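From the pipeline queue, job 12 of 40. The input is one protein chain; the requested action is below.

Action: predict structure.
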Amino acid sequence: MKKNEILSKLLIKPKKLTVKGGFLKKDAKAPIYTNVDTTMEYLLGLAGYESKPEVVWYDTDAAVLSIGKENIEEKEYTFQNDEEYFLDISEDSVVIIGKDEKAMLLGLKAFIRMSEELGEMPQMYIDDYPNIPFRAVHTCVFRPDDGTEKEESTLEHIKMMMKTAALSGYNHIFVEFWGMFPYSLDYAHWPNAYTKEEVKDLVDFAYDCLHIQPIPQQNLTSHAAWSRIISRKHTVLDQRPDMADMYVPGGWCFATENPKTQKFLRLLMDELLEMFRNPPYLHTGCDKAFCFGSTEEDRRISSDILLIKHLSYLNSYLSERNVKMVMWGDMLYCSMDALYWKCREESVDLLPKNILINVWTHDNPGKNWYDPEFFEKKGFETIYSPFLNDVGTESMVEICKKRGSHGILQTTWHKPQTAVPSVVYSGALQWCGKKPCDEVKKNFAAKWYK
């Protein structure tokens, strides 16, 4: 098989690929060796191998996975990217070298992906790493019986998206709960919310099977009903109307100056962080807060000041726990979709710069999108969120790479099944910047989203 033929079949095209000639003679029971003490059985099973890895010593600081032989070529490995891996496929062996464990496992996922795409695996040497450092998919766990039209978002469907994301190059998966997280306060979730055991199983699947970083997400400012707005339901107030003082009139935003509200939000953050094994990020939502600060008690205080004060409060609480706060940026600045009420632009200058700002549009921002520039000029890092607009995704990935921004958070919202091809396409663009053909994208989605 020639190089161009191989590349035409791949979702993600490696930066360097050298064809040796001949094919791998895969032995499902081949011995497996590694210098990394981590669980790989699930991924190795997807790759078609049955043996349990044996942990051995190699004279290198790099992470090694060797299938079919214990000894590897002794040489100095030079890495130009933190996620770089080398994949060496010979007739009777597969050797993956990564800068660290995460990079090596990205190489294993690439081998799994290519095994399905190519069928018979050519003997070849690959050196590859992603263009975009932070590559994430955003998922939602909705109440299934909220009366709104939406696609399936059960935990099993979230697992399917996790697997699709992990194998199409992503390194983070965000899980946003809409009244379905099993908080210890029974009024903080719907009666048919998932159990702690079920959510733990989801988190364990991400960490221990797929080796993708799961990140919790919960609206902690606006969208405080934790329900789709068209459902006209409110997770807390429908069950406990006596808790109305924790919210602005109507319940769309939290009454953030209320000590009872602050205690409630702290509990939510604590329980999310514990369930997700103290993750590096927590996405706090904070978008579309268009009636923020409208309580009777707060009417004499600038809503801009109230919002910045609240965001700073959330950030301080998370920072003390070594967690980086992520928030949608539209209430601070947005040039396209979110043209409703928002803060004065200078308000953002009062916000701590360690917050990761998530800019978004459901449209195509073109080549000169000002939103990331606005925040980055003020000292913030940014991630960008496209939805189902593939041309918009292309623009965002191009801008993100050009600006050296933090990364991309691909959204799926209430249409996760519809969004699968967009997730796959976005993953490929973020990794290598080259568009896969429609057939490759379609075949990949059909194979792994199940």
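Job complete. The chain has eleven helices and 15 strands.
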